Amino acid sequence: MQKRFNDTGLCIPYRHYMVDSSVKLKQIIQLVEWGEYFTINRPRQFGKTTTLFLLDKALNQRDDYVALKISFEGIDTETHQHQERFITEILIMLAHRLEFLGFSHPSQLIEEHRSQITNLPALSRFITKLVGTMPTKSWVLMIDEVDKSSNNQLFLDFLGMLRNKYLQRDDGEDTFQSIILAGVHDIKTLKAKIRPDAKSGGYNSPWNIAIDFKVDLSFAPPEIETMLQDYSQDKQIQPDISAIAERLYYYTAGYPYLVSKLCKFIDEDIIPNRADKNWSVDDVEAAFKMIVDGGYTTTLFDSLTKNLENNRELYNFVLDIVINGKRAPYVITSPMINFANLYGIIANVDGFCQIHNRIYEQRIYAHLVSNLLVANRNNLAPSPDSFTAGGLDIKLILQRFQSFMRENYGKRDRKFLEREGRLLFLAFLKPILNGRGFDFKEPSVADEQRMDIVIAYQDKRYVIELKRWYGDKYHQRGLQQLSDYLDIYSLKKGYLLIYNFNKGKTYKEELIPFQDKEIFAVWV
Fold first, then answer.
1. Residue 130 sits in the same domain as residue 238
2. Distance CA 320, CA 312 (A)
3. Which InterPro entries does the record associate with it (predicted)?
4. Which of its termini does the chain have fewer beta carbons within 10 Å around, N or C?
């Protein structure tokens, strides 16, 4: 069977190109051997199900383990409301799994007794009996998609039963050596969803026996290289694997789905259109543009947008990071920061909140701009023709934006301008590009909270730096930063949009010679 890059569901080694996850697997097996109970809570499409699949396979290949992997995905809402039906469904899944693994005796034992097991105490006693059928083996229970049970008390009672058996384990009672739950939420969050009025200090979680799961499921560049090596050998090509892996990581921060999706774009959409099948870093750039295109979406991006739109506090928090370059300390006890972390929207970078990856950042950036355009479609809709004759006239765009701000927002309060000023420019710019150009934001968190916008239009690139006015000293440092950034793109001309929120400010423009560069600056 010909392998492919997979972007949906479970990854299977003989069907899909996959990273070598053996190191991660060894770390998880070590936790199992220590007899730990833990939760693998990671964002959507972060490799949780694939990790359980590989773990299940590795453990069941050993003579000393029985690993039972089940999923709550198929348990409907009605079943969750009735204890007897819930227990019966779990027992059926366990029986089917044991039968599949070739353990017919314990499977038959379940079938013989499951009609008599109608409550959790009875289930607890039966688990002891079941595990005792193979005393030379250590039993491991893995439950995927525990989020499907996140809105009911019965599931928490079930966990409480397992917790009680864990505590009795040292008294010699047969039970699972290790239990692993997998889902987006940790158990503490699940209980908060069931009892939203619960105070932060009153959880008393039935899963407080769980250890912290610290295995990093994201893909580091060397791990991405293993997948690219497999692909290259299969296709008989010789790309610069190290450089490509680094660039994939640069855009994805190792988010498993995003890494595979970019590779899938290159393999199935970019490479087939040319004779040379070798990959290059430019192919990663092209795939990045495809995935951040506003006309393309996935369930992952739909979930990202939904979470922003359904939580105004999160929306404003993310806007301040993406657009205004604000630095917020990463404090996981903050409910909003914890939520953003659970869904993979932010990451902890040197103690501060940062959008998890550049793809998310660009998608969020486009979504925020789109919302502002829709809300202000009468004011923020400049005709592109006057700016694009013979190329893209950035100088004229900045001059017109300055006039636009002076006429429409000159009397708005400082708080509004500080928050919305950059977003207004990005929304002003979007219809001018109108699908014929591509703008990418590159945040540069510094004292000035600057933002660099890179525009690719036709065969040219333009760099516009947006920053706040803090005085001439910081201005000179900003010019140096812009000059250094222009060197990356081998450009001699750059542009500055400077926001001055001081009273009595002057709307002005200036052509600034700096070193070997020419920088056109506009103040608003």
1. no
2. 12
3. P-loop_NTPase
4. N
19 within 8 A of 46, measured Cβ to Cβ: no
pLDDT in tens, 267-298: 999 999 899 999 999 999 999 999 998 778 89
State what percent of residues in the chain have pLDDT above 90: 61
Per-residue confidence (pLDDT) for residue 255, from 0 to 100: 97
Are the CB atoms for 98 and 90 separated by under 8 Å?
no
The pTM is what?
0.88
189 shares its domain with 263: no
- In this prediction, residues 509-517 reach a mean pLDDT of 95
Tell me what pLDDT residue 202 has.
Answer: 41
Token representation of residue 285: 């750039």
Mean pLDDT of the chain: 88
Amino acid code (one letter) for 198 = A
Burial letters 148-168, b for 16+ CB under 10 A, else e: bbbebebbbebbebbbbbbee
| 201 within some domain | no
CA 484 to chain CA mean position, Å: 30
* Residue 416 DSSP one-character state: H
Contact between 130 and 66 (Cβ < 8 Å): no
Instruction: Convert the pLDDT of each residue in 6-26 to its tens digit.
Output: 998 899 999 999 999 999 999
Q: DSSP letter at 522?
A: E
In angstroms, the CA 243 to CA 224 distance is: 11
d(CA 219, CA 249): 8
Q: For residues 385-393, give the mean pLDDT.
A: 79
Residues 421 and 517 in one domain: yes
**Is beta strand 450-457 parallel, antiparallel or unpaired with respect to 460-468?**
antiparallel
Question: What CATH number should be reported for the domain holding residue 142?
Answer: 3.40.50
Share of the chain above pLDDT 70, in %: 93
Could you tell me if residue 368 is inside a domain? no
Residues 188 and 262 in one domain: no
* Least confident residue range of 59-63, 181-185, 228-232, 353-357: 181-185
Where in the sequence is the domain holding 233, given as residue range(s)?
Answer: 221-292
Domain boundary among 265, 292, 319: 292
Q: Are residues 137 and 242 in the same domain?
A: no
Residue 258 domain flag: yes
Is residue 316 situated within a structural domain?
no
DSSP letter string over 295-327?
T---HHHHHHHHHHHT-HHHHHHHHHHHTT---
